């Protein structure tokens, strides 16, 4: 049986959603954050891959549940990870106008700013008293021709690309950067593949038919405390060098 998940995700530290640098290197990004963002709870199954998975393997073993893939797939995108260092992105795109979305469930509002202003002014840690419809972050609304260096360098995982194609769907790449504590409250999500290039991203997933009680305009961070942890069916923090696959809806 296929599952559709309601999910909420929080950027636990700044995420740009593999070079073998020293362990303390963060790509130039500031990862200052409150301790609650680094909770170790993770009950989503982790798959340690020594080789790249095939579409048949994925369909047989992992199609019906979200999983975190650790290992081989991460090394495919060394070039993209290097391009997403803070200094590199500012050098390439500092003067580029980017479209920000409000960080509430439906993300209707938009704001256009220079990318350098977004990095300098919008990526400070988000506080619990901020409301989501007044919190802005960069995700989606990407002009692929303007961000071509990023999109052309990124290597899609064959097993996911092939799986979507075999099911009559096309994959579409999106690129985003969010500050510590930012993110989007609960919303419905179809099948997806998420790779964290820098930082960490926390996911909360609930099965189809389970509707949490929440305010779509509350800050994402507040739901971490408002909704009891026992309510979440699945929870994980996906860090650099790991990727997450959401089950098909």
TrEMBL record:
It comes from the Eukaryota. The keyword Signal applies. Residues 1-19 form the signal peptide. GO terms for molecular function: cis-regulatory region sequence-specific DNA binding. The keyword Transport does not apply. Keywords: Signal. One of its GO terms (cellular component) is nucleus. This is JmjC domain-containing protein.
């Amino acid at each position: 049986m296929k599952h559709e998940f309601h999910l909420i995700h929080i950027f636990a530290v700044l995420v740009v959603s593999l070079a073998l640098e020293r362990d303390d290197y963060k790509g130039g990004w500031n990862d200052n954050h409150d301790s609650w963002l680094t909770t170790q709870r993770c009950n989503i199954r982790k798959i340690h891959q020594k080789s790249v998975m095939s579409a048949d393997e994925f369909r047989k073993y992992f199609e019906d549940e979200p999983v975190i893939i650790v290992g081989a797939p991460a090394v495919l995108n060394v070039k993209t990870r290097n391009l997403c260092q803070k200094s590199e992105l500012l050098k390439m795109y500092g003067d580029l106008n980017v479209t920000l979305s409000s960080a509430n469930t439906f993300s209707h509002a938009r704001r256009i700013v220079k990318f350098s202003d977004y990095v300098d002014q919008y990526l400070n840690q988000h506080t619990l008293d901020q409301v989501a419809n007044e919190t802005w972050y960069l995700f989606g609304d990407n002009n692929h021709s303007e961000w071509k260096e990023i999109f052309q360098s990124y290597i899609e995982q064959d097993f996911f690309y092939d799986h979507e194609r075999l099911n009559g769907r096309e994959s579409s790449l999106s690129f985003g950067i969010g500050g510590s504590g930012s993110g989007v409250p609960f919303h419905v999500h179809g099948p997806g593949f998420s790779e964290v290039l820098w930082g960490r991203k926390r996911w909360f997933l609930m099965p189809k038919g389970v509707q949490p009680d929440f305010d779509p305009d509350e800050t994402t961070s507040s739901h971490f405390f408002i909704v009891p942890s026992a309510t979440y069916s699945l929870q994980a923090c996906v860090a650099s060098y790991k990727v997450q696959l959401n089950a098909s809806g």
